[in-house]
Amino acid sequence: MVQTDEERKAKRKEYNSRPEVKAKKKKLKQTSEVKVKQKGYDSRPEVKAKKKEYSQRPEVKAQQKEYSQRPEVKAKRKEYDSRPEVKAKRKKLKQTSEYKAQRKEYNSRPEVKAQQKEYLSRPEVKAKRKEYLSRPEVKVKASKRSTTPEFRAKGITLHNNERLKIFQEYSKRLSKSDIPCCNCCGLNSHVDFLSIDHVLGRVEMDHIPELVEIGYSSKFTTVALRDWIVDNDFPEGFQILCHNCNFAKAYPRNNGKCPHVG
Predict the structure, then answer these.
(1) From CA 94, how far away is CA 84, in angstroms rounded?
(2) Does residue 102 lie in a domain region?
(3) Is a pLDDT exceeding 90 seen at residue 246?
(4) Which residues constitute the domain of residue 176?
């Protein structure tokens, strides 16, 4: 008797679901020969392309999403992630230069930045993050970490690099200079003499719809403003001034203008 395709698939499915067959296949996959063979197969360009194309299909994405949301799958993943050997393995992997470079390249993609920005702007995500950061144990952990020399050194380096990016962008855009400089007097001897200036005033810029729409606030701290400017691709409304021009511009008698320009 000739079997139909449906009957053949059903028979194969029944066979593969047997405990002894599953155990046999699992044991076979653990052998070094099969691992090496599988690794070689998976590294082929045509196989990678085929897998990528398959994973991008809407029905496959929907299926994977539905599967990952199952309570038993979440519980299983949580149990796996909590294993000491898994944590140690991931920690070791994250410290490799290859991983860091790969992660940096991935995070710099415009589509990834847009996706992260959209995700972080969701009300439920903001509320969840706020609740997490308000936990006593998280505050204590963050306080301890922030006092370490390594953390401070890393923070200072990050701050200086981000400030330099902002100085370079606005100096090039407004002063037509490849060297960070004051947009008023042209001072460019050292970046420590320069600062970010709100062209119309810190509080006044709260009333510019285009800026408010992308999250601007006059209540930003120095670090928050720095991150916001970089994350929003250096929006209009800011310039680079030296501290002298910036302070002089802020005096009420100068009406929001540096004495250099009258």
Answers:
(1) 15
(2) no
(3) yes
(4) 149-254
Q: Which residues contact 22 (CB under 8 A, 6 or more apart)?
A: 16
Q: In sequence order, what are the beta bridge partners of 239?
A: 197
In a domain, 64, yes or no: no
CA dihedral 248, 253, 258, 260 (to 10 degrees): -110
Output the CA torsion sign for 120, 123, 128, 132: positive
Total domains in the fold of the chain? 1
Cα–Cα distance for residue pair 27/37, rounded to 1 Å: 15
| Residue 241 domain flag | yes
Distance CA 175, CA 180 (A): 9
Least confident residue range of 68-72, 136-140, 160-164, 177-181 = 136-140
At which residue do the structure tokens 């053949």 appear?
8
Tokens of 81: 């992630």
